[in-house]
Every structure is written in C-alpha cells, then in structure tokens.
Amino acid sequence: MTELNIVLPSKLKVVQEDAMHGTYEIEGLHPGYGYTLGNSLRRIILSSLPGAAVTAVKIEGADHEFASLPGIKEDVLMILLNLKKTRFKLSVDGPVDFQCTIKGGKAVMARDIEVPGGVEILTPDQYICEITDKAATLSMTLTIERGLGFIPRESFRKEKVDVGTIALDAIFTPVRKASYEVEDMRVGDRTNYHRLRMSIETDGTIAPKEALEESIQIMVAQLRSILDLKHEAYMPAPKEPVAMDMGSEAETSNESDQDDSALADVLKTRIDTLSFGTRTANALSAASIRTLGGLVQKTEEDLMGLDGFGSKSLDEVKAVLTQFGLTLKV
Q1: pLDDT tens profile 286-324
Q2: Beta bridge mates, 107
Q3: Domain-wise residue ranges, the chain
Q4: Which of 14, 153, 272, 280 has its CA 20 to 30 A from that of 314?
C-alpha cells in the first residue's frame, strides 16, 4: 500500500565547523526534498542575510573614480576595489560616516583605517594601496551601511551628494560561499531518501550555523505568512462527532471503516523513518520496538526502563506521537 505520510527529517547535524566555515547535514528527507530544500536555502543564504559594506567613498584630491593621486602607486579605481573587499561589522543603526588620514611611506592595509565606535574591521590584512612618497597622505571619508545581499550603486538614491563622493556597489551579504550536495540514503526498506549536505563560508560577522538557521527561519516565516499559520506542528483537523440515527448508520459505518484503515496504516509506520534522535532510536531498536503500533503499546514506565532511555527521550517520543494523534499506553 502506498505510504501517505511524508516523514520528517532528522535534526541538523554538524559535520565540520569553525569560526568561518561549516558543513552540516540533514538526513531522512523525503525523496526529492533534498534538492527542494537545498536550492531554496542556498538562495536565501546568499540573498537575505544582513551585513555591512562601504557604500560611498570620498578621497581628497580625486573628483572621480578614474583619477590618480600623486605619491600613491594605485589609481583611485583600484583603491575602491580594495575597499569593497574589506569586510566591516556594524553594531549601530543607520549609515556611519567617518574620515581617516594615513601618512605615506608604507603599504596601507585595512588595519590602518581608524574606525569610530560601533564599527569593526574583520579583514585587517586586506591590502588597500601603497603610498610611495613619504610626504604624501591618503585622506578618505567612508560611508558604511547595513543592507541585504548585493545592491548596485545605481540603486542608492540620495538627494544631495557632495562633489567628489563616489558611490560603490555594495556587497552586504556576510556569506562568501554557499553550496549543497544531495545523496541517496536508506530509511527503512527504501533507498531513495535524501541526505542534504550544506557547506557555508562566511566573512566572520556571523557563524556558519547561525547563517543556516537564520535562512531556515526566513523560509518558515515566508511560508507561514502565506497561509497565516501559527507556529505549531501540523496535524489533521479532528473529525466532528456524528450523531447516530437509523438513516445514517450505513454511512457512519463506512466512515468508521475508513478511519480504522487509516489508523492501521499509521500504526505500521516504522520507527526508523521518523525524526527520533540517535540515542532514542537506538534504545527503541534494542527493545525490538519497530513501529508506532509497537510503541503505543508501551507505558511511560516501560520506556523509562529501557537502557539508554531518559526523560529527554520520553519527551521526544511524546512529541512524535502527538503529531500522529497518538499517545502511550496508560
């Protein structure tokens, strides 16, 4: 008989993680859901997470981006490109404008830029330019703003712009790379379930796991707003009780048979296809509890007596049974 229930996947598992790189797996996805979730999450990660970037620069002695400055090896265009590669963290609201002056005779790195409070440079080793003349100086006024994704400079609309102020394309996203892989895995007797592996690299303003979790929250919020859903597990609406009379007896009997058949199918659901944690699943498997039907025949005391089964496992079992409208034996 065709299985009608779409099983829930496992919890997020950390494969490898550090401050800027992370690889995570989600197992037990219904066939096809690996690509559905992987592509959606990747697009959200790259386009919808907030970050900070330089949006405008004014360099003393340069009226436009194609100018060159005396005593400085790079032209203004190259300086702007290097500033775009510099990553900032902004902990205050609104755009921040500040001026910095750097004296000559050295290679200028991002760490040489003096930033005000609320602004932090995350790539201090980023090369900006080289001032070859000791008597020359590089004086700049930077504007740093917060935003989402990538915004071209044509999208920044300002009523009044000072002469010499150069708008930049803003790369706000704190994620440098995001990719996913999907592979088949076995769940019960089926071998076409999906394992989704997400790999994320950030600029350090956000942890990789936090980026993934925020993207999931964004997806959930978008879908919830479409149907005006409340934040609770989906369960089929309970059937209203039907008053029995002689005229509806046959119809009621047919509905009862259908309900019994649906309940029987649910009770046949295998434990290893559900979203139990590893510890809970191992404890149930060791006790030869293979299906929901076998699980609902147990009391709380029976389960608590199993090796490796604790209060957290009991809460997990109750939560899964609630999704199917079932309870443990009293």
Answers
A1: 888 888 888 888 888 888 888 888 888 888 888 888 888
A2: 130
A3: 13-49+175-227, 51-171, 251-323
A4: 14
